[in-house]
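Much of our argument rests on the idea that a fold can be written as discrete symbols. The amino acid sequence and the backbone structure tokens for this protein are reproduced below:

___
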Amino acid sequence: MIKSNETNSKSVLITGASTGIGKACAVHLSELGYQVFAGIRQQKDEHDLLKTSNNGLIPVQLDVTDTGSINEAAKMIQTTLGERGLYALVNNAGIAVSGPIEFIPIDDFRQQFEVNVIGQVAVTQTFLDLLRKAYGRIVNISSISGQIALPFLGPYASSKFALEAISDALRVELRPWGIPVILIEPGRIATPIWEKSLARADENIRGLPPKGKELYSQIIDYARKSMTNPSRTMLSVESVVRVVEQVLSVENPRARYAIGRKTSQRILLFKILPTRLRDKLMARRMGMK
């Protein structure tokens, strides 16, 4: 494990640090002594971040879907680091698009991949030279949805499946330079991403054509109720923060960290169950025949 007094020389970039997992990780790691570059999309988020952290946290304007924004952030970080490299990149930025695939607007599907997949690759490509300097590591925040695709979460799950595949390939490609690529796979976390997803899903549902409402309204209503379970059924943000801290502390991190006992059990169960039985169980849980 890395001792706390050794973190002062280590710098970490976290994308999507305005809220949720990214913000909690940024604040916690800065309190441990890391120099944290917290990627935010809007200027107003800078004040909130600085209110909750010490001098180890540096807000950085960073939109992962904007090449110019990524390049400007890279220049700023490189200038700040000087000859030092970047110890860790935590690719956390993400959105969740939900609804029946048949009627999801294609632009929404594209945005899902632009943020959760293309954006992660663009940031990784840009910062790899700085990571090589520090013999750094890449931490990709995935999800149980990167292993299990639930109905009406198809866009989100497919983006996380893609992130898992990219991480598996990248891990081997970067092996000659000793740069670990680590996937963190939490179950459902109590963060604003799901509130935003539900609001967006409600908007899409209202915009469904008559045929879409006729085909899916009853199923969607059942699915929505399953997504709005009390937060006590979700994992805490802190459970992810603790794992990120561990991943940055150990000398040889594992390739994957599934967070939550039920998460590990579900992933294992879905791998060993026959596909037909698995589909039947999922359909029954969603109120389908």
Notes: Residues 106-133 form the longest helix (28 residues). The domain at 4-285 is CATH 3.40.50.720 (Rossmann fold).
